[in-house]
From TrEMBL:
Topological category with respect to the lipid bilayer: Single-pass membrane protein
Protein name per Swiss-Prot or TrEMBL: Delta(24)-sterol reductase
Gene3D superfamilies: 3.30.465.10
Biased segments, Basic and acidic residues type: 545-554
Location of this chain's protein in the cell: Membrane
Keyword rRNA-binding in record: no
Chain positions covered by the region annotation Disordered: 545-567
Annotated ranges, domain FAD-binding PCMH-type: 45-231
Keywords: Membrane, Oxidoreductase, Transmembrane, Transmembrane helix
InterPro entries given in the database record: Diminuto-like (IPR040165), FAD-bd_PCMH (IPR016166), FAD-bd_PCMH-like_sf (IPR036318), FAD-bd_PCMH_sub2 (IPR016169), Oxid_FAD_bind_N (IPR006094)
GO cellular component: cytoplasm; membrane
Length: 567
């Protein structure tokens, strides 16, 4: 067997859950889609009402809501009440990780009112927003001004709070870094009810650098100031097919945005947006985009493709046509390009509704898409949820750019999941070591994509049913994820914690650096008030005993040498 050949697996005997999953589309069409559409419409009306209010009115409401949060925190009795978490229901989160920590005793703080855009400051080029503002809402407000967040995550439902406390990336991250790298300031309510504003150069700079990836375990985020950039009305998108082995595909992907002469910060050589989709071990399409004016887009001979219409082919399938017709260029309205994967949830929509990509469905019912991820989770039950954990993969592997070929071969060998999403991002060398950080000494190697201030990483997005599952063979999803996590640790990679994790506490702190995080936990009184990030990310139900142990946790984490100096 060659290195790229997947191991032979025995056939798996079907059980009742297989048939329930196979016909789940009935519930999705008649229950989930109508409720999702209603929810989206009501949310849109709420956003419109918010936009009618002046910034002054929104700020006044914000101040009142912050006072309520502070009052609520001060009502907590540490000796009787559980650890603090938000009042949001477990199924509402977009991520696939089970929010099982909310099944145990906890002290709820309601943040549901924090969904307003507080200010668009065109002079400072900053948007000040509340944590439940989502990407669809912010792009709807800024794009007509020819402004945008520097990093706009693709799915409409993703919120500012989730992208900051967790993980956020987009095709512009090879220029601006992850979503959290574009934040200018955080407004945080600490465990004792104190409201602080953290920036990279004020007295709370340590908290500023510790917030990303902390999963809300250092304080409650109530507002953030995020960098804006100037944009144009259209995205000029070039689709380039690639045929070859996985190493060839990885190199073509690197060449699409990373000049081999190392001139990575030259806007003339580096596109505004980059994305790759690997459809098989030998076929892929690389997409590069540059902002374009409406005058350019409407010139004679240029093709405009409004991908946002409900009846249009799903974006990943449209991109795949480049493998048949060769390289081509088209112009997409900028906001429609930002949210190109929303309607089909990348390619997960094909599993949820196998026929939803057909023209008849797109034309008749495509306007109902997408189903809300939260409603899909709410209607699946424990049996189906556990089935998906075993028979389905939704993971992101953040790896150095020069290891993308290795990662693609590993995914093919162990999971056989296609398509695979490729999206680059800068991993900045910061003045203080955070939970995620570039490889020590990366700047000395001068590898493709790297600069003196940042190492180029790539999100290898693995979302779909593995090949063995599609063929009816035995597949151990939990074991596959454990192998993936070990591979990431060995290759200085990282796993976003929105996904299901099999990491033990020891392995978790081998993957991530605990030093700054634990220092801030102690300094800002989070210990005993907010659960630790590992505890919050841990798979499985949390028992009352675990909650009590977390509340009484020792200041020193079992597996982190927090007293070591920060590099």
């Amino acid at each position: 067997m060659s290195d790229l050949e997947a191991p032979l697996r025995p056939k798996r005997k079907k059980i009742w859950v297989d048939y329930f999953v196979q016909f789940r589309w009935i519930i999705v069409i008649f229950v989930v889609l109508p409720i999702s559409f209603t929810f989206y419409f009501l949310t849109y009306l709420g956003d419109v009402r918010s936009e009618w209010k002046s910034y002054k009115t929104r700020q006044k409401q914000h101040d009142e809501n912050v006072k309520k949060v502070i009052k609520r925190l001060k009502q907590r009795n540490p000796s009787k009440d559980g650890l603090v978490c938000t009042a949001r229901k477990p199924w509402i989160a977009v991520g696939m990780r089970n929010v099982d920590y909310k099944r145990a005793r906890h002290f709820e703080v309601d943040l549901s009112a924090f969904r307003n855009i507080l200010e668009i400051d065109k002079e400072r080029m900053v948007a000040r927003v509340e944590p439940l503002v989502n990407m669809g809402q912010i792009s709807r407000a800024t794009v007509p001004m020819n402004l945008s967040l520097a990093v706009v995550a693709e799915l409409d439902d993703l919120t500012v709070g989730g992208l900051i406390n967790g993980y956020g990336i987009e095709g512009s991250s090879h220029k601006f870094g992850l979503f959290s790298d574009t934040v200018v300031a955080y407004e945080i309510v600490l465990a004792d009810g104190t409201l602080v504003r953290a920036t990279k150069d004020n007295e709370h700079s340590d908290l500023f650098y510790a917030i990303p990836w902390s999963q809300g375990t250092l304080g409650l985020l109530v507002a953030a100031e995020i960098r804006l950039i100037h944009i144009k009305e259209y995205m000029k998108l070039t689709y380039k097919p690639v045929v070859g082995n996985l190493r060839d595909i990885a190199q073509a992907y690197s060449d699409s945005f990373a000049p081999r002469d190392g001139d990575q910060d030259n806007d003339e050589k580096v596109p505004d947006f980059v994305e790759g989709m690997v459809y098989s071990p030998t076929r892929a399409v690389m997409m590069t985009g540059r902002y374009a004016s409406k005058e350019e887009a409407k010139k004679k001979g240029n093709k405009i493709n409004c991908v946002g219409w409900w009846f249009k082919p799903w974006f990943y399938q449209h991109a795949e046509t480049a493998l048949k017709k060769g390289e081509f260029v088209e112009y997409i309205p900028t906001r429609e390009y930002y949210h190109r994967h929303t309607r089909c949830l990348y390619w997960e929509g094909k599993l949820i509704l196998p026929f939803a990509d057909q023209f008849w469905f797109r034309f008749l019912l495509g306007w109902l898409m997408p189903p809300k991820v939260s409603l899909l989770k709410a209607t699946q039950g424990d049996a189906i949820r556990n089935y998906y954990h075993e028979m389905h993969v939704i993971q992101d592997m953040l790896v150095p750019l020069y290891k993308v070929g290795d990662a693609l071969e590993w995914v093919h060998r162990e999971m056989e999941v296609y398509p695979i999403w490729l999206c680059p991002h800068k991993m900045f060398r910061l003045p203080i070591k955070t939970m995620i950080y570039p490889e020590p000494g990366f700047e000395l190697h001068r590898r493709q994509g790297d600069t003196q201030t940042a190492q180029m990483y790539t999100d290898v997005g693995v979302y779909y049913a593995p090949g063995p599952v599609l063929r009816g063979e035995v597949f151990d999803g939990a074991e596959a994820v454990r192998k993936m996590e070990n591979w990431l640790i060995e290759n200085h990679g990282f796993q976003p914690q929105y996904a299901v994790s099999e990491l033990s506490e020891k392995s978790f702190w081998r993957m991530f650096d605990a030093s700054l995080y634990e220092q801030c936990r102690r300094k800002y009184g989070a210990v005993g008030t907010f659960m630790s990030v590992y505890y919050k990310s841990k798979k499985g139900r949390k028992t009352e005993k675990e909650v009590q142990e977390a509340e009484q946790a020792h200041l020193e984490p079992a597996y982190a040498e927090v007293d070591q100096p920060v590099e």
